[in-house]
Write a structure and sequence with these properties.
5 helices; binds fe (ii) ion; single chain; Jelly Rolls; alpha+beta; 3-stranded antiparallel beta sheet; 15 strands; 36% strand; 8-stranded antiparallel beta sheet
Length: 237
């Protein structure tokens, strides 16, 4: 483990969240590698979320679950299952089985994708005495459509119901808004508000000790397509 990772572990322990650019967590060159370009391009191949209780047509996604092990540095896809979130954590869309297309096989094996997950469990290693994590992963694209606001978190201030959650920006395209806020565990106090601007910018949250929310997005140039691409990875034992 590098000293940079050690310092990130300390910050995560004391502050309950990390925020930074790609070099802070994933190493230099992370977002300039061919693997990153292939990973980012796969956001053009997501499917519309049909489970939006607000009737929105602005969210596209894929979903798979993985087992990530720091001992042998393996990232193994688990059998495809629906995403299920209790209504306690998501009153809007929770409480039902939501079936999404699986993350593509080439992306499951993509080295930038696997490195992102492994980097997170490296940060957790000094804090949690386990080498193996179950990780629920979403590829999300939120469109800012003409006449429809794009809501990255339609459920409002919330927690995801896991132990730790990575929000990794892949790309912002022709949008304004989308600022991320980290709240205290009761959701009453804003601990930080940050903008994930460039690919590789991230938030890594202790989901037990924080809540979070992302502001809506709108098009910058109204006649052109606008969207925000995110990788969300939820870590639990
Ligand atoms: Fe969330």
């Amino acid at each position: 483990m590098t000293s940079a990772m050690n310092s990130q572990s300390k910050i995560l322990q004391s502050r309950a969240f990390l925020h930074g650019g790609p070099a802070d967590l994933f190493g230099t060159g992370f977002t300039t590698s061919p693997a990153w370009n292939l990973l980012a391009d796969s956001w053009n191949d997501l499917k519309q979320d049909e489970y939006m209780a607000d009737g929105g047509t602005y969210r596209y996604r894929r979903y798979s679950e993985f087992q990530v092990d720091s001992t042998d540095r393996s990232v193994t896809v688990l059998p495809h299952v629906p995403y299920r979130q209790s209504r306690e954590y998501n009153p809007l869309n929770g409480g039902i089985d939501r079936w999404y297309r699986a993350i593509r096989e080439d992306i499951q094996k993509n080295s930038a994708f696997q490195d992102a997950l492994l980097s997170c469990i490296d940060v957790l290693a000094p804090l949690q005495p386990r080498s193996r994590w179950t990780v629920k992963v979403f590829q999300n694209r939120i469109f800012a459509k003409a006449g429809e606001v794009g809501k990255p978190t339609p459920e409002g201030v919330h927690r995801d119901g896991c132990d730790f959650v990575l929000s990794l920006l892949i790309k912002r395209h022709n949008i304004v808004g989308g600022e991320s806020s980290v709240y205290s565990s009761d959701g009453e106090q804003v601990e930080a508000s940050v903008m994930l601007k460039d690919g590789g910018d991230f938030l890594f949250l202790d989901d037990q000790r924080t809540k979070h929310c992302v502001q809506p997005i709108a098009r910058l140039v109204p006649v052109d397509e606008g969207y925000r691409d995110m990788l969300i990875a939820m870590f639990a034992p």
